[in-house]
Amino acid sequence: MSFPEGFLWGGALAANQCEGAYLEDGKGLCVPDMILGGDQNTPRTICKIIQEGKFYPSHEAIDFYHHYKEDIKLFSEMGFKILRLSINWGRIYPHGDDLEPNEAGLQFYENVFDECLKYGIQPMVTLSHYEMPWHLVEKYQGFYSREVIDFFIKYAKTCFQRYQHKVKYWLTFNEINAGTMGDPLASLMGLGYMTKEDLQREQPCSFDELKDNPQQRYTALHHQLVASALAVIEGHRINKNLMIGNMISHITWYPHTCHPQDILAWQQKDALFNDFCADVQIRGEYPNYMIAYLKNHQIDLSYILETDLDILKKGTIDFYTMSYYISNCVSADPHAEHIGGNLVGGVKNPYLKASEWGWQIDPLGLKYTLKAVASRYPHIPIMIVENGFGAVDKIEKDGSIHDDYRIEYFRAHIQAMSEAIDEGVPLIGYTSWGPIDIVSAGTGQFYKRYGFIYVDRNDDGTGDLSRYKKDSFTWYKKVIETNGEEI
Ligand code: BGP
């Protein structure tokens, strides 16, 4: 086993999925606060008017806002070296376009970071993990409006200035490439984008009913890429020692067969989904294949200004990070068997098993992916900032939770990481997703759990929020203690 000295083991959370306290201490409403929870039979719905008496998972979540000391202590017990958290934009600028930041929000994160540092855990910050203030969605259609770039930069600068001596690793946007897919949930969460017509709706509607406008969506994504590059420039101007990265939702794609048509379909999918945003952020320019794709799809590119090209060139990132959960196949055959249940779709791989949500489990795919990323971008380090297994856990009468399926998932993925390192991949850290049970982003459920720590919280809003250690807790502690020698 070959994890380097000082390898950054830890976990990753998003503010909106754990904090709760959705209107406390001056926080404004954010995108997830407007999305109702679903369950196994009902999809999530959205409405611009909060529905009294209905269950919104982000409003209380697992109340990390009031439990952070207890939770960070548990993370330190596992030996975490790093904790990836997001700052909720709406705690700092409640409406997004406010003139002054909200001191109570700034102080909250200062306290959280101090608590981490007390245990030798370094905090790592995502500036925007699906947490755009709702006011920016309603008034500006999120990043579709160029003005939102300035609001984001003001927010980013406030955070860099305040926390530069406590936080070294920063990510601008979570899964910035999510907006390339045209899925309305991903567009809203990632870009804060909805069409004008859909924003008029006064009744809750499911995401399937929302419209996609590719011209507006690609405009919004471009503005987000410019905002990200500008944030890198500003962050480095404030403190040149900050390490500022991107964050890619990496779905590993395979051609379904070796038919040349499948190979071409796979190549295109991989380029558009995985490579495009990373190429812009690392190489500092739009790749030719993307310009061609947009033109071929009648997208008017006049939203790309000359000055933007300069910003993209200068604002390249310091390290590559990704989430990795699954792999899927691509087929040119429209009749190939598709997988249901996840946002990105894809064709079934007969060699892989899937979780209850259709997420295909592929540890070797992680090795392949790490090697592919390292050879595409050979000059920067890599960190996996999300990876984990969403499953239904059963709590026994004595409070124990036997989650060997989760241990099995992690064991195989950590093994794959170590093999990739042996083959030359410059991997510097690993933050598992949801080290404590939190709200699921895609389904809004508590039923889908990721944690090493169980939280007594259910989809009907019941549960007293007590924390319990699962079997995986002790297992991950050992992994960290032995620097990946014992898995
Ligand atoms: C990623 C998001 C996370 C997270 C994770 C698991 O896409 O960055 O916020 O939730 O996926 O997805 P889910 O919660 O839908 O199971």
UniProtKB/TrEMBL annotation:
Record's InterPro entries?
A: GH, GH_1_N_CS, Glyco_hydro_1
Asked if Aminoacyl-tRNA synthetase is a keyword of the record, the answer is no
Q: Which GO terms describe its biological process?
A: carbohydrate catabolic process
Q: Which GO terms describe its cellular component?
A: cytosol
Supply the alphabetized keyword list.
Glycosidase, Hydrolase
Q: What is this protein called?
A: 6-phospho-beta-glucosidase
Single GO term (MF): beta-glucosidase activity
The record's listing under Gene3D superfamilies reads:
Glycosidases (3.20.20.80)
Q: Which residues cross the membrane?
A: none
Q: Which family does it belong to?
A: Belongs to the glycosyl hydrolase 1 family.
Does Hydrolase show up as a keyword for this record? yes
